[in-house]
Amino acid sequence: MTTEPKDAPRSSWLADRLGWDRLRSSLDRHAVPRHSFFFYIGGLTLFALLLQVASGILLMMYYRPDAAAAHASVERIAREIPYGGLVRGVHVWAADLFVAMLLLHAFIVMVRRSFKSPQELGWLSGVLLMLIGIGQAFTGAVLPWSERAYTNARVGSQLAGYTPMVGDWFRRFLRGGEELSTDTLSRAYAFHVALLPAAMTVVVAGHFYFISRKPVVALEESNTKTIPFYPDFLIRQGVAFVGILVLVLTLAIFADRSIGTVADPRLATPADAQPPWYMLALHYVVRTAPRELLGVEGPRFLGGAVTALGVLFAALPFVDRRGSRITVWLSWVGLFALLLLSFRALH
Ligand code: HEM
After folding, report:
1. Of all protein residues, whose CA lies closest to atom 43 belonging to ligand 1?
2. Which segments in the chain show pLDDT lower than 50?
3. Contact in structure between 62 and 118 (CB atoms under 8 Å)
């Protein structure tokens, strides 16, 4: 008969089957700088996303993706369904917060030069998440089919139309034809509730896989004050989640997001129509473009320039392999330019 040594570590039946000990010893090798708030932003982005998913599933139960019924169904959710206004408020505010966190997270990764080797795939999957995330927020803004939603659909598809080479096809694809119609709304709905969430799930899983291949900070290498990833960092991250939840609930209760009047396709889009805040800068650049630049139609030329910048941004870990100071400097210039252009667009 074999006897177990008295001091052998005992693991429970469930822990044994989950492989908890192995996971635990891998978590024990991770640490996070003690006073850096930067490390909480990626997790908060995920939390804002989860809030959207949870509230979005509830909204789906009452929303009607049909041009004749969409606006009335959103009014019904907000005014008649118990807690419908709260759920809609959470969804809309969490969407804005999600985009803001997404942009802030990308900015932090740039200025900390965390994109460099071996995080190339972490960065590339992040760039994909940025595109999917903005698409997610943007298609959502079309769904109430209000005057503003209609304007968003028109301005957004027009901007997409300035993509080099595929622009005209892209615009027609998003609209479901040459002009906006009920097909535009059905497409936005299909993208918003099926295609983009499915893509997001796959890419988020990839993002976490890629970034976890490198410990956030290898304990033995770190020379700053650190805290263990488990449980200290995770507990703090949990407290940050509660903070964001309280913020979103407060905004949802006290800061009403107006639904606006129902869209009337017979009315012309007002000259001062604005897209959502995260598209203000791009819209402003295209709107104020000269008629012609170097023999090319002005907005198309600028569309090409913005696309080229986007490709350069995506390829950053390969263009700047070591993470130079120039990238940090350019990140600040880029942020300043975006804020300035967005501000100019509003005034
Ligand atoms: C749904 C959107 C996203 C989620 C949920 C997410 C989540 C996270 C989390 C939790 C971390 C680890 C903690 C941290 O560094 O904050 C992280 C790291 C990282 N993220 Fe994201 N992220 C998203 C989008 C992005 C975007 C848009 C980019 C860049 C364009 C990006 C690039 C990276 C990189 C390179 C790292 C590794 C940082 C390092 O090694 O220190 N992520 N992400």
Report:
1. 42
2. 1-2
3. no
- Six-digit token string for 316: 């950053």
C-alpha–C-alpha distance, residues 78 and 199, integer Å: 29
Atom of ligand 1 nearest to the CA of 115: 35
Measured on CA atoms in the order 201, 202, 205, 208, is the torsion positive or negative? Answer: negative
Instruction: Locate all alpha helices (DSSP H) within 143-166, ordered by sequence.
Output: 147-160
Distance 49 CA to ligand 1 centre (A): 13
Provide the H-helix boundaries in 213-324.
Answer: 234-254, 280-287, 298-314, 316-319
Q: Which two tokens stand for residue 236?
A: 């703090």
Q: Which residues contact 82 (CB under 8 A, 6 or more apart)?
A: none
User: pTM (2 decimals)?
Assistant: 0.91
Residue with CA closest to ligand 1 atom 42 = 126
Question: Tokens standing for 96?
Answer: 């804005």
Upper half-sphere CA count for residue 136 (Cβ side, 13 Å): 29
Q: What is the pLDDT of residues 188-235, one digit of tens each?
A: 999 999 999 999 999 999 999 999 887 555 555 556 788 888 899 999
SS3 content of the chain, % helix, strand, coil (to 5): 65, 5, 30
Burial of 306 (0-12, 13-18, 19+ CB in 10 A): middle
Q: Reduced to 3 states, what is the DSSP secondary structure of residue 139?
A: helix
Spatial CB neighbours of 172, under 8 Å, sequence gap ≥ 6: 178
Residue type at position 311: V
Nearest CA to ligand 1 atom 37: 211
Q: Which pLDDT value is given to residue 216? A: 58
Nearest-CA neighbor of 338 among 120, 99, 31?
99
Instruction: Report the chain's mean pLDDT, rounded to a whole number.
Output: 91
Residue 227: strand, helix, or coil? strand
| CA end-to-end distance (rounded Å), the chain | 84
Token pair 């005209």: residue = 168
- Ligand 1 interacting residues, C-beta cut-off 6 A: 39, 41-43, 45-46, 49, 102, 105-106, 109, 114-115, 119, 122-123, 126-127, 129-130, 133, 204, 207, 211, 214
| Number of residues assigned to the chain | 347
What is the per-residue pLDDT for 7?
56
